[in-house]
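wait is this the right file?? whatever heres the structure
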């Protein structure tokens, strides 16, 4: 909570904390709409979003989503049945299985996320190159701060 009447809240003179909270709420609403539209759970969608950057091991998915390996196995079974993911042998460790997105996942989700990506690119073009780079730097720095705070709170 960041209410200015709350003595425990940080001083947010520039509104950055509130802007982050509003951005998070907007992203959360957008992702809820996408999950509902493709008829999957939010954790299923979070898994698919993780895999966008390449295949992962089940234990890495569990760690990143904060789920047990058993829950991730059930999640993967659901997504595999819907043809959103596939399991494949790890090229360097035959005991490990990698989880990756299928073309179906890109087809179903890509068109939905593309509109948001286009809107972000369009907005950044209005700011000019230097301001857009600064915005990326701020967002990257904020991501790192959140990751650091997560480890401190745990």
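ok assuming it is, sequence goes like this
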């Amino acid at each position: 909570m960041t209410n200015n009447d709350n003595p425990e809240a940080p001083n947010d003179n520039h509104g950055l904390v509130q802007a982050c909270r509003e951005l998070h709420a907007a992203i959360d609403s957008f992702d809820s709409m996408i999950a509902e539209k493709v008829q999957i759970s939010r954790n299923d969608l979070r898994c698919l979003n993780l895999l966008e950057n390449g295949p992962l091991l089940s234990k890495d998915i569990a760690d990143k989503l904060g789920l047990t390996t058993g829950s991730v196995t059930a999640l993967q079974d659901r997504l595999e049945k819907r043809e959103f993911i596939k399991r494949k042998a790890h090229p360097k460790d035959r005991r490990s299985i990698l989880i990756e997105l299928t073309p179906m996942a890109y087809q179903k989700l890509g068109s939905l996320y593309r509109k948001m990506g286009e809107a972000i690119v369009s907005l950044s073009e209005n700011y000019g190159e230097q301001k857009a780079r600064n915005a990326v730097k701020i967002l990257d720095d904020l991501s790192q701060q959140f990751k650091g705070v997560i480890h401190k709170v745990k």
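Residues 103-127 form the longest helix (25 residues). so i think its the right one actually
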